[in-house]
Amino acid sequence: MIIIKDINLHNFKFWSGAKELADCLTLGDLQEIEEHLDEIYPDGLTETQINDLFWFDGEFICELIGENYEDIINRTFK
User: Fold this and answer.
1) H helices within the chain, ranges in order?
2) pTM reported for the whole predicted model
């Protein structure tokens, strides 16, 4: 059985290593990433595919918004 949900990335519940990157991104970053992913994957992605992109391909995710992965990970919010 396949269940498809239409949710925004800022409401997505990332887990494991993907959460580390997602927690460093702003709402604006997530919205921009979502727009790019919609274009690249017009048929959508599963929750596992989304999580795996953020976990194992964080550099790609950061490139979508013109940022460096290490710079994003080292952000500190006050």
Assistant:
1) 17-24, 27-40, 47-56, 58-64, 69-73
2) 0.89
